[in-house]
Specification:
CATH superfamily of chain A: P-loop containing nucleotide triphosphate hydrolases
Shape of chain B: elongated
Structural class of chain B: alpha+beta
Shape of chain A: globular
Radius of gyration of chain A: 17 Å
Helix content of chain A: 25-40%
InterPro entries (chain B): ABC3_permease_C, FtsX, FtsX_ECD, FtsX_firmicutes-type
Strand order of the largest sheet of chain B: 2-3-1-4
Number of strands of chain B: 4
CATH architecture of chain A: 3-Layer(aba) Sandwich
Number of domains of chain B: 2
Strand order of the largest sheet of chain A: 6-7-8-3-9-10
Number of domains of chain A: 1
Subcellular location (chain B): Cell membrane
Helix content of chain B: 55-70%
Order of helices and strands of chain A: EEEHEEHEHHHEHEHEE
Largest interface: A-B, 24 and 21 residues
Pfam family, one (chain B): FtsX
Radius of gyration of chain B: 30 Å
Strand content of chain A: 25-35%
Structural class of chain A: alpha/beta
Oligomer: heterodimer
Protein name (chain B): Cell division protein FtsX
CATH topology of chain A: Rossmann fold
CATH class of chain A: Alpha Beta
Largest sheet of chain A: 6 strands, mixed
Strand content of chain B: 5-15%
Keywords (chain B): Cell cycle, Cell division, Cell membrane, Membrane, Transmembrane, Transmembrane helix
Number of helices of chain A: 7
Largest sheet of chain B: 4 strands, antiparallel
Number of helices of chain B: 9
Number of strands of chain A: 10
Chain lengths: 228, 302
Amino acid sequence: MIELKDVTKEYSKGVAALNGVSVKIEQGEFVFIVGDSGSGKSTLIKLIMKELDPTSGTIIVNGQNLNRMKHRHIPKYRRGLGVVFQDFRLLKDRNIYENIAFAQRVVETPTRVMKKKVPAALSLVGLAQKYKMFPKELSGGEQQRVAIARAIVNEPSILLADEPTGNLDPTNSWEIMQLLEEANQRGTTVLVVTHNQEIVNEMQKRVITMKKGVIVSDEKKGGYINED
Amino acid sequence: MRISTVGYTMKQGVKNIGRNKLFSLASVATMAACIFLFGLFFSVILNFNYIVKKAEEGVAITVFFEENLEDSKVEAIGDALRDRDDVLKVTYVSADEAWDTFKDEYFGESKDLAEGFKDDNPLAGSDNYEVYMKDVESQKEVVKFAEGLDGVRKVNKSDVVAKTLSSVNKLILYVSAAIILILLIVTVFLISNTVTIGITVRKEEIAIMKYIGAKDYFVRGPFIVEGILIGLVGAAIPLAGLYVVYDKAIDYIMTRFSILNNILDFMPVWDVYKILLPTGLLLGVGIGFIGSFFTIRKHLKV
C-alpha cells in the first residue's frame, strides 16, 4: 500500500513540483499517472523511491513512514520495489544474464537460487534464448524487457515504471504493457507514469491525472485527459 | 556479508580495471609518477641522514686525567662514561699513541722532523679517553658529566662541529618532512581527481545499484578493490625502477665525483629498501584506498 498525505515538494524556495498531494494506492492495484511535462509525475515516483524527501507531508509505503527512514535502511526498503526507466538503464558492459543476476547479487541471493531465478525471469519476458547477448545487441523493446526482468526477479511488491514505453514503437509498447499487466496479475502493485494516450485509454485502469503539482483527476477506470 | 559476495566484490574490482582500461592506465601512471618522486626524495633524504649520522659518529670528546692518576681511577672514569646510555664508544689512548697519531697528522711525510724529539714524548701525561656519542646533541651533557668526574683534569670538545651537525640534522628533518608532506598532498589530489573522473563515468552504474537496493558497502567494495590494486601496481612499478637505478646512480656519483669518496658514504640499496619498500607499497595501497573510499562517498547518496 502507498499513501501520500498532503505531500509538497519544493526544489527551490517557492517553486513547488508537488503541492499538497494526497493519494492512496492499495496493494495489487494497477495505476497510470498521467499529465504534462512538469506536472510532478516523476517527482512523485522519486519520492516513493526515497530518492527525494518531501518538503512537507507524509509518505507511507508498505507500512513504513519514509519521512523517518534512515539512510542505512533505504537499500532494504528499495528491495521491495522494482523500477523500470524510459532509458532502460542496463549495465552496458554486462550481458543480459549478468544484468538480471546483478539485481540478485545486490540482495545477496545464494548462487544456486540465482541460477534458477534468473532464467525464470528471462523466460517470463521471452528472452531466455538471448541471455548471452549484450544490451547493445538488442532492440529497444528487448532492452526494456530485460529491464522488466531485472525489476521483477526479486519479486517486489511494488513495480514503478517511469515512461516505460517512451522510447518504443507501438508494437513494443503493447508488449511491455502486457508484461506489466502480467506482473500485476501475479499480485504486484504497478504504477506507470506515461504519456501514451492510446495505452491508457485502451487498458481501462485507474488513472491519476496531474497538473502543475496537484492531482486534478483520479478515476477508477479512466482515460487520458487531453489538456489541449 | 556472504563469502560469495566477498568473491564477487574482488572479481568485480579486477574486472573494473579491465572495463576502464584508459582510466586504470591513467591512475597507475599518476600513482607511479608520484611514488617515483616520493621514492627519489626518500632515498636522498635517507642517505643525507646516513651521511650526517656517520659524521656524527666521528665526533668525539677527549677526556684528560690528572697527572699520575692511579690505573684503577682511570678505569673507573672509563666505566662511568661507558655506563651512560648516550655514549656509543669509549677508547683509551695512551700518550705514546697520541704522539704517534699527532706525528702522522702534523708532520706527514716529513717525519724526520719529529726525530728531534727522539724518546722525549712532548705529549707525556696526555693519556686520555676518546668518547664517541650516539647523538651529537648529547655532547654538552656528556662533557658536563665528564668534567664532574673525580680525577678528570680537562675535557676537550668541538662545539662548532657538534652544533653544525646538529643544525644540519634538524634542517634535513624539517626539509624532508616538508617535501614529503607536499608530495603526499599532491599525490592524494591527483589520485582523487583521477578517481573522480573514473567514478563520474560510472555514475549511472552506481545509481542503478542504489535503485535496486544495493547497500553502500556493495557499491563501494569493487571500487575500493580497484583502488587498492591500482595503488599496488602504481607503487610497485616505480619502486622496481628505483631499485635498478639506485646502484647505478651511486656508481655514477662515486666515479664522476671521486673527490667526494672520503666524505660521502651511501647506504646500500637493501638498507634503503627495508624502509622504502613497505612505506612505498603502503602509501600506494593507502592512497588507492582513501582516494576511492572518499571519492565514491558523495555518489552513494542516491
